[in-house]
């Protein structure tokens, strides 16, 4: 059996020199980290999927008709909605909630939506101190109206269907 408590006289200075070598090797390299949040990455990757948002028509009405396809397509069961009708007989989402802790950001909800209402944006800074704050309601997800800047989404259909 080998006694590991005994170290030779030359092993300690050799270990110190190895440590200095490693330090000087990395001292003049360009840093690969950024000082977040003072510096923010200029742009996310084009295919990045961040926080959800609900779009509106050009007249400001909600695009979501609460058909439930996004909730059905969600493999994590993160979307909950309750439909309702307004005085014109148009459907809208009375309650629309997304649990961002359950969401796996797969984008199936975006693909399933026939009204082009839900999208995954580029927002990556959404943190909170309590689990309940990760349940985003319709008011949190809807694009503010009137818009401050034009939508980045190119819609196939800009106006509501009239039947």
Question: Can you give a write-up of this model?
Answer:
There is one protein chain. The chain is an alpha+beta fold and 163 residues long. It contains 4 helices and 5 strands; from the N terminus they run H-E-H-E-E-H-E-E-H. It has helices at 11-27, 69-73, 108-112, 138-141; strands at residues 52-54, 79-85, 91-99, 118-120, 135-136. Strands 2-3-5 form a 3-stranded antiparallel β-sheet. The longest helix has 17 residues, at 11-27. The radius of gyration is 26 Å and the shape is elongated. 13% of the residues are buried. The model has no long low-confidence stretch (mean pLDDT 91).
Which key features would you list for this structure?
163 residues, alpha+beta, three-stranded antiparallel beta sheet, two-stranded antiparallel sheet
